[in-house]
Design goal:
Distance between the termini: 18 Å
Strand order of the largest sheet: 3-2-1-4-5
CATH architecture: 3-Layer(aba) Sandwich
Shape: globular
Structural class: alpha/beta
Order of helices and strands: EHHEHHHEHHEHEH
Strand content: 5-15%
Helix content: 40-55%
Number of helices: 9
CATH topology: Rossmann fold
């Protein structure tokens, strides 16, 4: 079964739009067709945006739990610092560390500027970095 690491943008999009690609991937995790993984650091990032997305913390946590997303431990600062010199945006380093430490097959994001950019993908050639749309097209051509 394929393991997919979701960043905050994918989880927030799934939470807010039940008909989009992010929601489709999260539904696959809920159905145990894929293994959906994130980190406590990503969960904290989502919770920090709760006012912007107009969701209560308990509703965010419930969504993550009901959809069988595995939450790995918080990303350590020392692990972030280890790759910070190669990052375009150090604030996103935790996403790459989380994906690498969980041995995922895919890092899934909607962040075109800091994660999906070709230059970023080239920096992490061992990670398959893609958007929900790209991933769904690969699985369901």
């Amino acid at each position: 079964m394929k393991k997919m690491y979701f960043d905050a943008s994918v989880i927030i999009a799934g939470l807010l739009s039940p008909s989009g690609g992010s929601s489709a991937l999260i539904t696959l995790a809920q159905q145990n067709s894929i293994i959906g993984i994130t980190s406590q650091t990503v969960v904290e990032e989502i919770l920090s945006h709760r006012h912007k997305i107009r969701k209560m913390p308990k509703d965010i946590i419930k969504y993550i739990q009901e959809n069988n997303l595995i939450i790995r431990n918080e990303i350590l600062l020392k692990d972030i610092q280890a790759i910070s010199d190669i990052m375009i945006d150090v604030d996103d380093a935790h996403v790459f560390v989380g994906a690498m430490h969980t041995g995922t097959d895919y890092l899934v994001s909607l962040d075109k500027k800091h994660i999906l950019a070709p230059s970023v993908k080239a920096t992490f050639p061992h990670l398959h970095i893609c958007s929900p749309k790209e991933l769904l097209a690969e699985f369901f051509p």
